[in-house]
Amino acid sequence: MNSSYFSTPPVVKNLIIINSLAFLGVWLIPSLNQFMGQYGVLYWFGSPYYHSYQFVTYMFLHASLEHLFFNMFALWMFGRTLEYALGSKRFLIYYMVCGVGAALVQMGVAGLTGEFGIQLLGASGAVMGLLLAFGVLWPNSIIMLLIPPIPLKAKWFVIIYAAIELLLGWTGRDPGVAHFAHIGGMLWGLGLLYYWRRKGIIRF
């Protein structure tokens, strides 16, 4: 097998390192845990703990090892191909736009539904933007699902995943997960991809 298959470009590598170090630090240092829980997590606009920079910092904090692992695994799986295709600078811009956009959508939904106690953390919104981009740029690439273990074209995987997220968010059956942030990351990513296509930066 070509060793380049397992190579990791710089932005993806550094994002994984930063997220992992943040989780390790919060896990090992109680004072850092308290500090990041108060200042790093994204709070509702009216909360005394809210700060505008939390739209960035929330992306680098995770609630559990499982939460971190699946986000970083997806970042590694889809982010590598995207960074090589877009270039490191544009890939980072895309990742951050998806992450901030995901938070804006989740905050908007929280405002509409009266969930003013929202506390948002995790890279899931940005990672869902990466998944969307992979499905748009390489729609016929095959993704092997884990459960059930069947192959599926990327475009169908994205459509099915987005539909499930929308259903779960709408019905509220999985209240511990920010499903609308996932949808938001996809929507902002889609908008940015079409903007770049209109500018002639990318083709799909």
Task: Please describe the topology of this protein.
Elements: H1 10-28, H2 30-39, E1 42-43, H3 54-57, H4 65-86, H5 88-113, E2 119-120, H6 124-137, E3 142-144, E4 151-153, H7 154-171, H8 179-198
Antiparallel strand pairs: 1-2, 3-4
Helix pairs in contact: 1-2, 1-4, 4-5, 4-6, 5-6, 5-8, 6-7, 6-8, 7-8
What does this structure look like?
With 204 residues, this protein is mostly helical. Helices cover 65% and strands 5% of the residues. The chain has eight helices and four strands; from the N terminus they run ααβαααβαββαα. It has helices at residues 10-28, 30-39, 54-57, 65-86, 88-113, 124-137, 154-171, 179-198; strands spanning 42-43, 119-120, 142-144, 151-153. The strands form two sheets. Strands 1-2 form a two-stranded antiparallel sheet. It has a two-stranded antiparallel ribbon with strand order 3-4. β3 and β4 form a beta hairpin. α5 crosses α6. The longest helix is centred in the middle third of the chain and has 26 residues, at 88-113. The protein starts with 9 loop residues before the first helix and ends in a 6-residue tail after the last helix. The model has no long low-confidence stretch (mean pLDDT 91).
